[in-house]
Specification:
The chain has 12 helices and no strands.
Length: about 260
């Protein structure tokens, strides 16, 4: 399994598992959104509106991933071991998020308080899309509300930061995968599946999910040590031997000429 596939899968699973934490908050958001939809539209099928809202939200995550990818790629030259440092940072954030979800470390919520200050600058943009009279207006709402302060999103961005050492596009891909992971839970919440909210609010469910995310974080911190070291790449080694056999070096040619004479 390639490292790229592993990181994309990790981002998706983190979004899928971590969105359980967001259901309580996003349930209120879904209610607020439905009240802002025009009355003549509210009685119709809301699925297109939910889909376009979540599409806008995921696009915002992808844009944020690309931005963090550009910044990370530029500043990586300042560090001696940028990959190891970035994976440690994302691992620490994931462990913190898991402890927060399990109610073991409530102080992790300070990230959302910091993000709330930035949200004040973005929030006024949604006035251009209300009242919602079409799914495309809801797409604009999703693009704006994708910047809502969320510790889960900030943790995913640290994972995207680690991917920025390869390319900003890979960071964007990770945030897109993360957004897709959050989609099932948030669609269910927006579709008024109220039972899921009661299940996810149970402490044992939150703690199981928290432990899984902690394990992801520990795995991420161990990734710099996996597959690295003083071991030779067998493919490269065999290729080198084949090259030497087919194209002898000057030293080998000298030995052959000496033996010939």
């Amino acid at each position: 399994m390639s490292m790229q596939f592993t990181s994309v899968l990790s981002a998706f699973l983190m979004g899928f598992l971590g969105s359980i934490h967001c259901i309580g908050m996003c349930g209120g958001i879904a209610g607020a959104l439905s009240m802002r939809i025009a009355p003549e539209v509210r009685s119709k099928n809301l699925l297109p509106y939910l889909l376009t809202y979540n599409l806008g939200r995921i696009l915002t995550y992808t844009i944020a991933g690309a931005l963090i990818g550009v910044l990370g790629n530029q500043f990586s030259t300042w560090l001696l071991e940028p990959r190891k440092v970035s994976l440690y940072i994302s691992g620490v954030f994931m462990i913190g998020l898991g402890l927060y979800m399990g109610s073991w470390w409530p102080s992790f919520a300070v990230l959302e308080k910091i993000g709330a200050k930035l949200w004040r600058w973005v929030a006024p943009l949604d006035q251009y899309f209300f009242p919602v009279t079409s799914p495309w207006r809801m797409l604009g709402v999703g693009l704006v509300w994708g910047w809502l302060p969320c510790g889960l999103v900030y943790t995913a961005l640290t994972l995207a930061l680690a991917a920025s050492l390869d390319s900003p596009s890979r960071s964007a891909l990770l945030m897109f995968a993360f957004g897709l992971g959050t989609l099932p839970a948030l669609l269910a919440t927006g579709s008024a599946v109220y039972g899921i909210g009661k299940i996810t609010q149970q402490l044992w469910v939150r703690r199981v999910v928290g432990i899984l995310i902690i394990l992801f974080g520990v795995y991420g911190m161990l990734m710099p040590h996996a597959g690295h070291g003083n071991h030779e790449n067998p493919l490269q080694h065999s290729t080198t031997e084949q090259t030497q056999h087919e194209y002898p070096t000057h030293e080998h040619m000298g030995d052959q000429q000496h033996q010939h004479h």
